[in-house]
Amino acid sequence: KNQVEQSPQSLIILEGKNCTLQCNYTVSPFSNLRWYKQDTGRGPVSLTIMTFSENTKSNGRYTATLDADTKQSSLHITASQLSDSASYICVVSFSGGYNKLIFGAGTRLAVHP
Amino acid sequence: DAGVIQSPRHEVTEMGQEVTLRCKPISGHNSLFWYRQTMMRGLELLIYFNNNVPIDDSGMPEDRFSAKMPNASFSTLKIQPSEPRDSAVYFCASSPGTSGRAREADTQYFGPGTRLTVL
Fold it and tell me: What is the pLDDT at residue A51?
């Protein structure tokens, strides 16, 4: 079964600290993996995209890694800011058809001052 | 570009009433998606249109739900009759599809969502 699992479910950190969010997937065949950020009351917004041949991608203070062999990805946030408080959703594209997106349940991050 | 536009942003209705949600995708995008998001189940794909044609409606819960895309710039999701368990945030998303560069072809751009409450 095609699934995306994320951990932790929620996380609280202090402003300025770093954190790492985890994603494991069983989607096959695999096309690409994205991390989306969803602010409260808003729709998800794409942060990074990686294909199976890429193992790291950065977007400012966000760095995503991908290990296609172990089917694991992580999102590292450096020097967190209050505006990083949001849900982070790992999304895997299933290429057995029309590149259907399989969504993880998300990690809810709260950055406190 | 204004991005994906959804209306209404909030809808409160009573059980049994008909609800219609509206979506205007990003101009030039070939693909349109309707999702439902709840705390329990996260984001669930309801239906996917490509070039205005429904391609995958396997996520539509039951006959009470229907979706249309009469043209490239407008789509509706209708629930009739509505039930309390339909309460959720409904998102519309569009993607360039074949009209975009290969890498970005399936990047989905989400609207702000419609928060539906069925009493």
Answer: 86
Residue A89 near chain B (CB below 8 Å):
yes
Bridge-based pairing of strands B10-13 and B114-118 is parallel
- pLDDT winner (highest mean) among A83-87, A95-99, B99-103: A83-87
B113 touches chain A (CB under 8 A): yes
Q: Which of B103, B105, B112 sits opposite A43 (nearest CB)?
A: B112
SS3 state at A70: coil
B30-65 pLDDT, tens digit per residue, is 899 999 999 888 899 999 999 999 999 989 988 899
State the Cα angle at A88 between A77 and A71, rounded to 5°. Answer: 85
DSSP state of B44: E
Q: B residues 36-55 near A, CB within 8 Å?
A: 42-43, 45, 48, 50, 55
Chain A positions in Cβ-Cβ contact with residue B91 (cut-off 8 Å)? 43-44
Rounded-to-integer distance, Cα B101 and Cα B25, Å: 18
CA dist B26 and B73 (Å) reads 8
Q: What is the pLDDT of residues A29-74, one digit of tens each?
A: 888 899 999 999 999 999 998 988 889 999 999 999 999 899 999 9
CA angle B69, B33, A43 (to 5 degrees): 125
- Considering only CB atoms, A103 lies closest to which of B42, B56, B107, namely B42
